[in-house]
Amino acid sequence: MTLFCLTMVMANTSFAMEKWPDKIRLGLIPPEGGADIQVRFKPLIDHLERELGIKVETFSASDYAGIITAMGHKHIEFAYFGPKSYVEASARSGAQALALELNSSGEKGYYGIIVTKKSSNITTLDQATDKTHSFAFTDPNSTSGCLVPSVLFYRDLETPPEKLFKEVSFSGSHGASILAIKNDKIDVAATNNIDFNRMIEKGAISSDDFNIIWKSELIPGAPMCGRRDLPASLKAAFTGALMSFNFDKRGLAKLQNGGYAPVDDSTYDVVRYMKQLKAKLQAKKGN
Fold this sequence. Notes:
There is one protein chain. The chain contains 12 helices and 11 strands. By secondary structure, the chain is an alpha/beta fold. It has a 6-stranded mixed β-sheet, with helices on both faces. It has a 5-stranded mixed β-sheet with strand order 7-6-8-5-9. Helix 7 links the parallel strand 6 (134-137) and strand 7. The N and C termini lie far apart (66 Å).
């Protein structure tokens, strides 16, 4: 027997000795609302059950922190995080990035955007930040809905958001922010191109009713993660199942992304840098 074959036999024997749970629970951050994301992920959940041979349940929470906490308390085995919430979960809850979500164009990421309603005639960032308009972040643990625009305000505009807008709030989700703009509840909001396009695709909004007044550089795609303490064979099988889902074009259309690609933790170092930068700039501004 060659050394390679012997190594493979030993690896397979080790995997075989690992006990998988009877079911796995997948936590889903609420970018557009709990019910909508459950429907969107249904084809992927069905695929995972077929590929893994075990029951897959979904778990949602009212905010990003709820999914981070659930993984830390071992109430879930896997999770769909945003980049910033993954960084938090990696540090606090033992999360390990397994695969990265591609956008519909196949890029390994997405773009933060700031939007206004077309009829508001707010068409530039200067107009939006003249201290007379209301602004909505999404969630404190959102990358495009909080971290990225915060860096824009503190670093590029050198001003805390509270001094750029007459009112600053958190909507709770990207869908809520976008609808708040549509319904004249908020003047300006931070979101991202993926969730914005998903709202268009499901008929909740029309792109003709919005101005995109700012767009970020590419942000690393949202990761699918597993707990570090899970059996290596289970994490490998879960990752493989995600990659094979790339061939299900109908399922990807329902999920509204471009599939998955391999990833490692260092991909999100840029997000860690932005977190540190935001904290430093906030401290410098005395906020």
